[in-house]
Batch of 3 targets.
Target 1
Amino acid sequence: MEHVLGLRCTICGAEYGVDDVAYVCPRHGNDGILDVVYDYDLVRRRFAAQPPAVPSMWRYLPLLPVSRQAAQPLVQATVLETVGWTPLYPAPRIAAQLGLQALWVKDDSRQPTASLKDRASAVAVVKAREQGAAVVTTASTGNAGAALAGLCAAVEQRNVILVPRTAPPAKVAQLVAFGSTVLLVDGSYDQAFDLCLQVAQSWGWYNRNTAYNPYMAEGKKTAAYEICEQLGGAGRFRAPDVIVVPVGDGCIIGGVHKGLRDLAALGQIDRIPRLVGVQAAGSASLVDAWERGIAGWEMEAIDAHTVADSICAGLPRDRNKALRAVRETGGAMLRVDDAEILAAIPALARGCGVFAEPAAAAVYAGLVHAVEKGIVSAHDEAVLLITGSGLKDVASVMKGQSRTPAVVEPTLAAVEKALDGSVAR
Ligand SMILES: *Cc1c(COP(=O)(O)O)cnc(C)c1O
Ligand SMILES: [Zn+2]
């Protein structure tokens, strides 16, 4: 870990050695979320000496906050080996509909547990093993837990997951199948989060909670590396103009920003894309903060509600990093309502063949707003970050459908009647 110089508080800028603090800045308590600081000269040398790049997030091992000795045995020949390096597709039909010249879709529904959270949970599993933790725990709206559960199962690591009891059944089914100890909290995600911090502290368990654990953004940042490397091609990196990211706690957008800053520091990209964050209207405290120009630590909790469970957060835990990501890149924070989110699922599925859960599809609805408001213009090259699969929450998918499929008797005549001339013969 000599390549990690330390941890820096996002509020006061105080720096700590990696072994000097547990998770957050002691001066700022739970709000004192930390940044991981790297020795970029050493990182550069390690990349130069690295074996051929593997098609996963581990191709960026010299930029991850784990030791090679801890990572290698866990990653080799387990599910962890397949995290990351998800496809980046062009989406020309959606681009044309919106009047854009170039649009790309980064499809993180194609992760082992079907969400981007695998990138963070993979780092958590390695860190927990590095520290010899008996148990790993997290609160989650569902995906972070499912990712931790699946990757823990892959390497036989005990884990305890707290999710709100309202989490979509598919996400709970993943937790149960992977053999986690699952606690369905009779309360909100925010309550589950606070409870999990207490639980972790009481029993000394390794704490994966989003943002609170400074290394989760470090896993998520690999999505940004991949976008730029896939756009560049042939081992080169090229930044798009805009990346559109769904925002709940703000860890993904903060992580994407970190990934871009790493690439710029290493001289791999010469400019940082604008980051556009998309929140659900019923869970939009970061949009409010951005519009009002206030700091993350001045924000107050709201009572959040949205169909997009993965971005339902009353007090976004990575609010400092999320606001910094949008402000420093000249981006924006936008709100979209639940009807727009539900309509975005089929729009994206039909427009480019990618099936997204509500929170992930929200970026499509956000892009529509961004184009209308002139935040994204015709010549901008934009990337939509699709963070989770539509299979995670099929009930919401069906809510967004105007028509349900016809039921037919098993006869040709019934089929002909049902088609009613709508399909060419
Ligand atoms: C977690 C998650 C998000 C939001 O990420 P934050 O880091 O909480 O902002 C968006 N989409 C999906 C599918 C997620 O699982
Ligand atoms: Zn501090």
Target 2
Amino acid sequence: MASKQMFVVVVLAIIVVLSSIALATEHVVGDKDGWKIGVNYTEWVKGKTFLVGDTLVFNYDNTTHNVFKVDGDQFKACKLPPAKTADNPLSSGHDVIALKASGKKWYICGTPGHCDKGMKLVINVQSPAGPAPTPAPTAPSALAPSPSAAFRTSAPAILAAASMVGSVLGSLF
Ligand SMILES: *[C@@H]1O[C@H](CO)[C@@H](O)[C@H](O)[C@H]1NC(C)=O
Ligand SMILES: *[C@@H]1O[C@H](CO)[C@@H](O)[C@H](O)[C@H]1NC(C)=O
Ligand SMILES: [Cu+2]
């Protein structure tokens, strides 16, 4: 009896973990190319959806590049912020940025000339429910989340979750 209750608790815990994994996507900027000159980041952004809770990962050679968070005007002009701060620029070479709020986010490389050569990225972060639905009383289905937003689990996340479920079940029986 006790082990049955334990089983239910474990299954519920797994469901909670799985649903949180399913909601977050890790976006590796430039995919395998990473953050460098010669990648069209406008092209990279095309067709992608960035949601609050997702992460943005910049991979690059930190002897040559960095990542400045800037505003829209600085982005447009390839102009750096007037002062550096503790977390700006990022320069680890593997920077993981949590997308915590909706709205546009702008990033440029601070090495002279690199932004002009295309090391600039702008994304639009949406709240998980998507853009505010326009009132459409005759079409209630418009309020449902799109399938692409509902199924965002990456293959590695599924594999990791599956192996976790397997090892928990294995230790129970
Ligand atoms: C990058 O891609 C965008 C969108 O496809 C395109 O409009 C733009 O001209 C490209 N930029 C360069 C420098 O090729
Ligand atoms: C570059 O990356 C290495 C390894 O992550 C780190 O130790 C070093 O401090 C970084 N350099 C700068 C300028 O942040
Ligand atoms: Cu650079």
Target 3
Amino acid sequence: MTDYGFETRAIHAGQEPDPRTGAVVPAIYATSTYKQDGVGGLREGYEYSRSANPTRTALEECLASLEGGPAALAFASGLAAEDTLLRALTSPGDHVVIPDDAYGGTFRLFDKVETRWGLAYDAAAVADVDAVRAAIRPGSTKIVWVETPTNPLLGIADIAALAEVAHEAGALLVVDNTFASPYLQQPLALGADVVVHSTTKYAGGHSDVVGGALVVGDEALEEPLRFHQNAMGAVAGPFDAWLVLRGLKTLGIRMERHCDNAEAVVAFLQGRPEVAEVIYPGLVEHPGHAVAARQMRRFGGMVSFRMTAGEQAALGVVEHTELFTLAESLGGVESLIEHPGRMTHASAAGSPLEVPSDLIRVSVGIETGDDLVADLERAFERYARG
Ligand SMILES: *Cc1c(COP(=O)(O)O)cnc(C)c1O
């Protein structure tokens, strides 16, 4: 499979027509257990569905192929994947460096849960390689954790440079690749050790499933993660695995369209006096543009912008769109709009992760691009009229 292109692997990796019936699409193996041919006589290793399930195996093989790693593991959610990774690879007394604008749920996991079990963390601006280096505690830092682009300010981390910084300190580089998806960015090829996904977002792509995944760059990491996946049990169920597997088949063409539409939205916003600043890594004035251009195929479907007239204007606009649905989450075929300060990032208020109150974040979907631009234009006018 490795010789094939991305879209071919997205459709075929881990999946073959069923040898008995010829069914083209992998079955949803809704089974908890498997008949043994004599005690211990497992067929292809299947024993109990927490340990392994054929639908989940198909998804894991497909994800591994798309990220270019030897193995992937699928979980019940992105946070379940993160928790399993942390408990597998760190111990009480260890330290991790996390992004100072990490996904809110990731920050909460570190701050409210993992610290209770003895894991210490420091937050650093991952766009600043020196800041990350300075946050490392030699000897006790086991993981440098990076998101790129970040949420909601779309900061860009230099994956190759941070891999070097982490490895010099004897730490692993973990990259949350949820915002870019493996179609736009391949962190393992740039030196990352583990890729994290919330498959809820672009991988699933249809806002109909919650899931997560880990992809390892080094085979030696598979064994401890596999052990903890089974021992902790936060696995993806067969139907959820199937939905993500189906979503992945169209990831390439969806991402192209997400990027086309995001570029149209950015061009519209840049011409509007109501907008003080458009934040998109595809813009040459974005501070991470050069790095993003080096490590991403295109710049993604997420756009953030700040309203000239402040928080009330931001709240007004998010309540006056029709096609852009006012909702949290991202990465689905439908466009979403939100106010991070009051919604996804409300829990960061008063912390170093607080976001500007005049900020709007949109997840640009794959509808007709002109309709999306017109919807934003109408929302600006409706809000202005009150
Ligand atoms: C949504 C998200 C997560 C958490 O994933 P869940 O599937 O919601 O548990 C982690 N990282 C990023 C960047 C996300 O957007």
